[in-house]
Amino acid sequence: MAEHIGIVGVSAEGAALCYRTICTDGAELMGRHAHPEVSMHTHPLSEYMRGIETGDWEDVGRLMLSSAQKLAGIGADFIACPDNTVHQSFDWVAERSPLPWLHIAEEVASDAEQRGFKRVGVLGTRYLMEGPVYAMKLSAIGIEHETPEQLERGRINQIIFDELVYGRFTESSRDYFSGVIRRLKDKGCDAVVLGCTEIPLLIGEGDSPLPTLDSTRILARAALRRATR
After folding, report:
1. Residue 75: CA count within 13 A, CB half-sphere
2. Secondary structure letter of residue 132 according to DSSP
3. Strand ranges inside the chain, DSSP E
4. Mean pLDDT rounded to a whole number for the chain
5. Does domain 5-103+217-228 have CATH number 4.10.520.10?
6. Res. 101: pLDDT tops 90
7. Buried-most residue among 3, 43, 114, 219 (CB within 10 A)?
8. Which pLDDT score is estimated for 145?
9. What span, in angstroms and rounded, lies between the C-alpha atoms of 98 and 133?
10. Sign of the dihedral through C-alpha 52, 55, 57, 59
11. Contacts with 141 (C-beta within 8 Å, 6 or more apart), sequence order
């Protein structure tokens, strides 16, 4: 019997993509129309942003832990959180959680290693690109990483919070991301991490000058493998 997947949502579009991927890809593993039981809890993004913007990662962690406790109460077996930025709170949460968690950057790093990438660009919120989440997980397995220039990081962050989290995906923003990825390629990157869970809704393989590491779908498929192992 498949395990019950708990999703700790943060931003709606990314959480929805993770949920959809689990449900649609589940059929490949379990049969027509089948997927594991899935439950999701989401605090308002505004509550997360208070801690993110002030660097209070313990406050962010308390929200994640609150969701985990609710999911444990309705029978979830483990947790997946399709939000890269809040993984700065992961260690604090994991020590206190009633359930085990998948780590999104570990899953992405493992996928990058399996695909033979040596140096990857990392895109995401400013807090993610300038934080330790991917630097630690990639360097631990010998993969180098690169982030965009400071002005580019600011513009990417603005697009994420003003457009993508609201489900707005424009050609001008798609072109901007493609240009940033092209410059990462020029710096020697052989792949790019789509490290904000909404970015894969804007940029696909056909739009990117580099192979993509779609953090949302990688996490969802890791959750499926765990639930059906």
Report:
1. 7
2. S
3. 5-9, 38-42, 78-80, 119-123, 144-146, 191-194, 212-214
4. 97
5. no
6. yes
7. 219
8. 98
9. 22
10. negative
11. 109, 110, 113
**Which residue has 């003003």 as its token pair?**
162
Is the pLDDT at 94 greater than 90? The verdict is yes
Tell me which fold the domain 104-215 belongs to.
Answer: Rossmann fold (3.40.50)
Given a contact cutoff of 8 angstroms between Cβ atoms, the answer to whether 145 and 130 are in contact is: no
Query: How many CA atoms are closer than 13 Å to the CA of 229, on its beta-carbon side?
Result: 8
Bridging pattern class, strands 38-42 and 5-9: parallel
What is the spatial distance between Cα 86 and Cα 89, in angstroms, rounded to a whole number? 6
Q: For tokens 């999701």, what's the residue? A: 40
Mean pLDDT of 86-101: 98
Structure confidence by residue, pLDDT tens digits, 167-184: 999 999 999 999 999 999
Q: With 90 as the cut, is the pLDDT of residue 1 above it?
A: no
Are 156 and 178 a contacting pair, CB within 8 Å? no
**Fold agreement (5-103+217-228, 104-215):** yes
Can you say how many angstroms the Cα of residue 49 is from the centroid of all Cα atoms in its chain?
Answer: 16
Rounded to whole angstroms, the Cα distance separating 69 from 109 reads 28
- Alpha-carbon distance of 83 to 58, in angstroms, equals 16
pLDDT tens digits, 104-163: 999 999 999 999 999 999 999 999 999 999 999 999 999 999 999 999 999 999 999 999
Cα(99)–Cα(8) distance, integer angstroms:
12
Nearest to 224 by CA among 1, 3, 70: 3
Place of tokens 């990662």: 57
